[in-house]
Amino acid sequence: MWLAVLTDAYTDGENAEDIFKYEEKVSALTTKDIQAVAKKYLSGDKITAILMPEK
């Protein structure tokens, strides 16, 4: 798992140390945040998805 996280961070040009902030970020989410995302992506009779093709 850690190797995959490091590989993804390297591939996406992100900071690998951000994994240490994961719990903090998840804990900061509110019910309102989750409802807003659900409303945006799961509204109506469709689902919006974003594909991230390989570079």
Question: What's a concise summary of this model?
Answer:
The chain has 55 residues and is mainly α. The chain is built from three helices and no strands. Helices cover 53% and strands 0% of the residues.
Structure description:
The chain has 55 residues and is mainly α. Helices cover 53% and strands 0% of the residues. The protein contains 3 helices and no strands. It has helices at residues 2-12, 22-28, 31-41. The longest helix has 11 residues, at 2-12.
What are the main properties of this structure?
55 residues; mainly alpha; 3 helices; 53% helix
Question: What secondary-structure arrangement, pairings included, does this model have?
Answer:
Elements: H1 2-12, H2 22-28, H3 31-41
Q: Which shape, going by the Cα principal axes?
A: flat
Sketch the topology as an H/E string, one letter per element: HHH
What class, by secondary structure content?
A: mainly alpha
Low-confidence stretches: none
Cα gyration radius (Å): 15 Å
* Count of helical stretches: 3
Average of the residue pLDDT scores:
87
